[in-house]
Every structure is written in C-alpha cells, then in structure tokens.
Amino acid sequence: MDTTLVPYSPILHRPALRWPNGARVALWVVPNIEHYEYQPKYVRVRDPWPRSPHPDVLGYATRDYGNRVGLWRLFELTDDLRIPCTVSLSMTVIQHFPDILEGMEKRQWELMSHGIYNTRYHWNFSPDEERAAMQESREIHRKLTGREQKGWFSPAITNTVNTFDLAAECGFSYTADLYHDDQPFPLRVKTGSLLSLPYTVELNDVLSHRRGEEAEEFARQIRDYFDTVYAEGAEQGRVMCIALHPYWVGQPHRIRAVRAALEYVLSHSGVWLARGSEIVDWFNANHLPAIESHLAAREAANG
Description:
This protein is α/β, with parallel strands linked by helices. The protein has helices at 57-81, 92-96, 98-106, 127-145, 163-169, 205-210, 215-232, 246-249, 255-266, 276-286, 288-301; strands at 25-33, 86-89, 110-113, 151-152, 174-175, 185-187, 194-196, 238-244, 271-273. The chain has 11 helices and 9 strands.
C-alpha cells in the first residue's frame, strides 16, 4: 500500500475507536445491485463475458436473475431483520429499473456509486474519462433521488492510480476501493478529503463462490469473522462489511443460510447497524481529529 496515500499505523497503536452507545462493531451490509450490458460497448483490459462470441446469454441471464428475483428475497430478509443497507450500485440500474429504485428508496438504502455499468471497466481510463464517469454518476443520483452521493466504489474493482484524488475532487466523502483495514482511515488526497471505508473481498458471497464455497461455508465465515472482531471490538471498534450479490445470495438454496448467519450476528448486543455515510460522519466528527494527531506524531517521530 502506498504510504503517501495511506499512512501506516498498526491498529493496536491507534487511539481507541468507540462507536455510538459503546458498540463494538459497525455492521455495514452492502448489496451489490449491478447492471451488466448484454453486448458491452467497452472492452479494454478484460473481456466482461468470458464465453465468446458475444452475447454470453448464460452470464448475462445469471446476473439478471438478481435484479428480477434475487433482490426481492434480499429485500424481504433485510426488512425482517431491520438492516439498513448501503448499495454498491451500477447507476444505470435506477435509470432502467424504476421498481428497484422505488424499493431502495422505500427502505432508505444509501446508494453508493459502483460506476455506470459493471461491464465498463476503469482500467486504462484517462483522468478525464474517469472524472466524467464520476460526475455522470453523481448527476444520475442527484436527478433521481434529489440528494448528493457520498460513496464511490469503482466498477468491478477497476480503480486507477487517479481514483482517490478524483473521487475527492468530485465531492465523494468516502471510497470502498481499499480493503486494507478494519477501521475507516483518512487518505492523503490532493484536494479536499476522502475516507477509506473498509469494503470486503473476504466476506463477499461471489468471491466465496469463486473459491468453490457454497452458502453454508459462507455463512460459517460470517459467524467466525464476527466472533473475532466482536471480541477485538471491546478494545478497538471495528467495521464488519458483508458484501452480497442478489444474483448469488438471492438464490432459493442460499438465502436461508445467510439469513441464519445474520440472525446470529444480530443476537449480540453492541452491534451498530449503519449505512456507509453514518459510519463516515460519526468517524469524522468523533475520531478523525485523534487519528490525525496520532499520524502527525508518528510522522514527526520518524523524521
């Protein structure tokens, strides 16, 4: 990790992070509601559909299932457990599918940008191209919700060396493009400010599936992960992100296992159910000054 972007600080050496009401863990549930183009327009470094020639009906239809069916199961689950979510959102979803926008707005889910389409990668984007995509995302969000967008997460995890400076420049307050910590952390950007909010590639259902694991194993990982950070959170508050994809977790044979794991987590006291911007706002108001002083002292001591 570039220490000019993210100053190094071992977590146990930092000022103690305390969440609201003494919570040990900020539970950040992030459904990835994505839109994949049937015939992608941009293919740069990687082919979005590995089955060729295009169209890849199997790949497209599998993902389309999430927006047609799986999401509605996930809505039911999060309603039952009263979980507020932050959506990793392909912005064209809310242009093409007003029913999905209505469902998310009804639940007051936060809409974090995951780019325009999940088949339009940012690798090899020029700064102007990447800036334009971020500005387009904010404009779509503003037009359809009337609010300013807070979070940025590059589509298909294809951030560039310019992503963080551009995200701050464009007005985002946090990014989910880094997975380097269990706590929010300030990034050294050229203008403005930007916080890294720890997304996960560990408790991520689709990446778990790519490792050959099924829903029961994924659910076990959620419980084991929670047990660890819950114990550690007595001394240092943690963020626990769970990344879900409706086309995977929303399948009939998987939803029950993940529901049981979430019920286990929520059976504990000291779990703060929070949206991304709520975590960021709390951190900035209550902990960021202490972290900045800590980092300044480390830099001074190290010359």
